[in-house]
Design brief:
The protein has about 220 residues and is an all-alpha fold. Among the domains are: about 100 residues; about 35 residues. Helix 3 runs antiparallel to helix 4 and helix 3 packs antiparallel against helix 6.
Length: about 220
């Protein structure tokens, strides 16, 4: 390894360690639905996307709906990347006049980019047109990683012991209905507390009666 390469690795690690805490705190606020600094600048755009897409950010989503939605979203990405490669010969932004990518290579690339492995079995500049690289590969680089992060957050939420109801789209937390077990625990504790009080009162009553029979005063 050259000195330049070692310096780049050290610089990368330093930047990564410095940004870990502030970036992690920011991501946690976003996933928990709390306000962040970018809400003023980009909040309107987020609300517009929700409105155009017909999404209610406060609506809840079960795990089955979440799983089906995630699968359909990634399937749409696979089909889009595959179509761009197969049709790039008749699409614009192809100054080199590159023809369609073979079916097997197109399918392999589409699946690998959807799974965020990004395995490339081709020469990008000699196989893909500008349009395919911009709208298919570059976009899928972001979308596949974003969907993976969404699944990770959903798994983290599901693994929590206390499970308040959450909004599936905005990530905000709403107070949920108390679980049956917690209600039973509270009822049991109240029942035992009332039982102890009643027992004390009963014992005091018996003592008072015994003392009254013997012409004494209970303490």
């Amino acid at each position: 390894m050259t000195a330049n390469g070692a310096l780049q690795l050290v610089f990368y690690l330093v930047v990564l360690l410095v940004l870990a805490k502030p970036l992690g705190a920011y991501m946690a606020r976003v996933y928990e639905g709390r306000r962040v600094a970018l809400d003023r600048a980009l909040g309107w755009l987020e609300r517009l996307i929700y409105k155009v897409s017909g999404i209610n950010p406060k609506a809840e989503m079960g795990w089955k709906t979440y799983a089906v939605t995630m699968l359909l979203f990634n399937l749409a990405g696979v089909l889009a990347v595959y179509a761009f490669q197969r049709l790039q010969g008749v699409l614009p932004l192809n100054p080199a006049g590159l023809g369609a990518v073979s079916p097997d290579s197109s399918f392999n690339t589409a699946v690998s980019f959807a799974t965020n492995t990004n395995w490339q079995g081709y020469g990008g500049e000699t196989t893909m047109s500008y349009l395919t690289q911009m709208l298919a590969l570059t976009v899928q680089n972001f979308m596949s990683a974003a969907s993976g992060m969404a699944v990770a957050v959903a798994l983290i939420r599901g693994s929590r012991v206390a499970r308040p109801r959450r909004s599936a789209t905005s990530g905000s937390i709403s107070p949920g209905r108390p679980s049956t077990s917690s209600c039973r625990c509270r009822l049991s504790s109240r029942w035992f507390s009332s039982l102890r009080v009643s027992c004390r009162r009963s014992a005091h009553t018996r003592k008072s009666r015994w003392c009254s029979r013997h012409n004494t005063t209970s303490r």
